[in-house]
Amino acid sequence: MHLVPTERAHRKAIDEHTVCLAIEGIGEPDQLPDWADRFALLGEPHRLAVLLAVHRAGPIAVTDLATATGIADTAVSQILRLLRAGGTVTGAKDGRIVRYELKDAQLAAILDQIRPASDGAHHELHGSAI
Description:
Layout: H1 16-26, H2 32-42, H3 45-57, E1 60-61, H4 62-69, H5 73-85, E2 89-94, E3 97-102, H6 105-111, H7 121-125
Antiparallel strand pairs: 1-3, 2-3
Helix pairs in contact: 4-5
């Protein structure tokens, strides 16, 4: 059990190889709070909707995000303020408009795994064929 820290070396293991694989899978324990924070962002439906919209369509303005997500402009602004404070998104001025885009490449990779329904119902409902 070459990866087990010395303070846990006295514990018994059923399969030492599996224990080492599990420790490798966890990675650096000091990085876990950062990952937990990232996943917490995904745990609220409105934040997730804003993140997905910014990721797939950014740079995008608050008003356009509100229209796309069905969330009030003020709520979108609050969500973006939280995401900017955490370094997840960034905003760039375009005249009087601020356009937001995803800054966190690791979160982008996670968001890439979330795929919208592919049954075409959304596009048929709105009369578009994207």
